[in-house]
Design brief:
This protein is mainly alpha-helical. The chain has two domains: about 15-95, no CATH class; about 100-159, no CATH class. The protein has helices at about 15-30, 30-40, 40-55, 60-75, 90-95, 135-140; strands spanning about 105-110, 115-120. Strands 1-2 form a two-stranded antiparallel ribbon. A hairpin with a 5-residue loop joins strand 1 and strand 2 (about 115-120). Bound molecules: zinc ion. The site of zinc ion has 7 residues, from loops.
């Protein structure tokens, strides 16, 4: 079997690299298809539908990619200008945006005093490591904690 690939067109590198991975995961299992569709219905449902049509031979992968590029250009023309270089990070931030919270963070000291009114929420599946340099994803997720410069208002311990 010959793998399906994208053909570079007008600086499509970021799209080609990212969508090649999406195509593999999104079309491999029903579960991943559902995960991607519910993650970001606006972009992902259309993209996966286009991949499905492409798998049937009714359109090309390049057409799927270019439809996404045009949609992203409508959403954010500063980041996704047709024919210009595109950041993979910007692309992933758009594709991995969700309707629901993926992460809630709070600020607290080592004595468990929590700063009120500080609930940082994240509606993206792209989670940055901040200043941490974990040696593995598992270690990072297990110890998902990072110090900040400020001190606790109650005990003056570091936050
Ligand atoms: Zn404290």
């Amino acid at each position: 079997m010959i793998p399906s690939v994208f053909s570079w067109h007008h600086n499509s590198c970021a799209y080609d690299a990212t969508l090649s991975i999406y195509m593999q995961y999104g079309t491999m299992t029903k579960k991943m298809d559902t995960v991607f569709r519910t993650m970001n219905e606006d972009l992902m449902t259309q993209l996966l539908n286009n991949f499905r049509v492409s798998n049937l031979g009714n359109t090309s992968l390049n057409s799927c990619r270019d439809k996404l590029r045009l949609r992203l250009q409508q959403i954010c023309p500063q980041k996704f200008t047709w024919g210009q270089f595109t950041s993979i990070l910007d692309l992933l931030e758009c594709l991995l945006t969700t309707q629901t919270d993926t992460l809630q963070r709070s600020i607290q000291c080592d004595n468990n005093h929590m700063e009120h009114d500080v609930q940082l929420q994240n509606k993206n599946c792209l989670i940055e490591t901040g200043s941490l340099s974990p040696t593995s994803v598992q270690l990072w997720m297990t110890n998902f904690k990072e110090s900040i410069v400020r001190k606790c208002n109650y005990c003056m311990e570091r936050l």
